[in-house]
Amino acid sequence: MTRLRGVLSKDIDPTVALRSVKFIAAQPGLAAATLQRVRRWIDGEAPEAGAKAFLALMQVDAESVVPVLLAEHDPEHDVMTVLRQGWLSVAQMAEHRTKVGMTMLAWLDAADNREDDRMTTLAVVSVLASVLRAKLDRSGCPVLTDTQRVSRYRLLAR
Q1: Backbone angles phi, psi at 52, to 5 degrees
Q2: Range of the domain at 84
Q3: What is the pLDDT of residues 122-145, one digit of tens each?
Q4: What CA–CA distance (Å, rounded) separates 123 from 121?
Q5: Average pLDDT of span 14-25
């Protein structure tokens, strides 16, 4: 992973390195640890390399590790929290906003189409809703508290 971080930090074609990160994450029991490592890159060691690797890991395609991550329950890594933190960090990087938006839409489409039972609507919304809420809050948009959200839900359910 250290060598891959170095390659991804350089201004060269990242395709092979990104494919390698996805390959490592796809190995049994390594998805959460790989995500955690990439998350550390984003917030310190190599932000650009981390963002590239994170977005590659979040791609919903034939080689996607997203369903594995959403279904994985690793006692050493709180995968859902790491996913949320990763999305928030990468979404703040102006050069990645378009890719972030397209990837989030792909997540929603995958959950809606139910292509993989592990990529449930609940899991996807759980991650993406917290990211959206934080983005709205940071932009100065009023965000509902949990109590307000419950009250609004009850009102709409009537």
Answers
A1: -60, -45
A2: 2-157
A3: 888 888 888 887 777 666 665 556
A4: 6
A5: 93
